[in-house]
Write a structure and sequence with these properties.
about 150 residues, mainly alpha, about 75% helix, flat
């Protein structure tokens, strides 16, 4: 960084950075609250910590976490690839492909996620006979109580 001398007759000003004491005070308050929370969690007698580790690392829980992460990564990859492909198609000078791409993007960007989940769940069950049979079987198992939460 280069500095230039002030013109003759003009006094050079010293630039002082602005102090933000509120940020420091806020940071200290947040750290104190986190420390208080940790101390409180460590001293509660009603929490049986060995039970937490026992159930938290059960095979079914770990398998569920792994499945969730796998689904998230695959969904992100599909979204990036499909989004790039559709954006590229929209840039083409082909009216039919561009219109189909625009309609797809318009529908899925304008529809709330919960509506899409219900749409795909119910739509796939209607389109796929095997899935419909599986859904009936799961409903029956839930009534009998064979499935967790039933």
């Amino acid at each position: 960084m280069t500095t230039t001398a002030a013109p003759p007759g003009v006094q050079a000003q010293v630039v002082v950075p602005v102090r933000h004491p509120g940020r420091w005070v806020g940071g200290v308050v947040v750290l104190l609250l986190v420390a208080l929370l940790l101390v409180k969690l460590g001293t509660i007698d009603k929490i049986h910590y060995p039970s937490i580790t026992k159930y938290l690392f059960q095979r079914s829980i770990v398998q569920g976490v792994v499945t969730t992460v796998e689904l998230a990564v695959v969904s992100q990859l599909i979204g990036v690839v499909l989004g790039t492909l559709l954006a590229t198609i929209r840039l083409l000078h082909k009216p039919v492909l561009s219109a189909v791409s625009w309609a797809y993007i318009f529908f899925f960007r304008g529809t709330p996620l919960i509506v899409q989940i219900l749409f795909w769940y119910n739509g796939l069950l209607e389109l796929l006979p095997r899935a419909r049979r599986l859904d009936r079987r799961l409903t029956t198992w839930r009534r009998v109580g064979c499935v967790a939460g039933g």
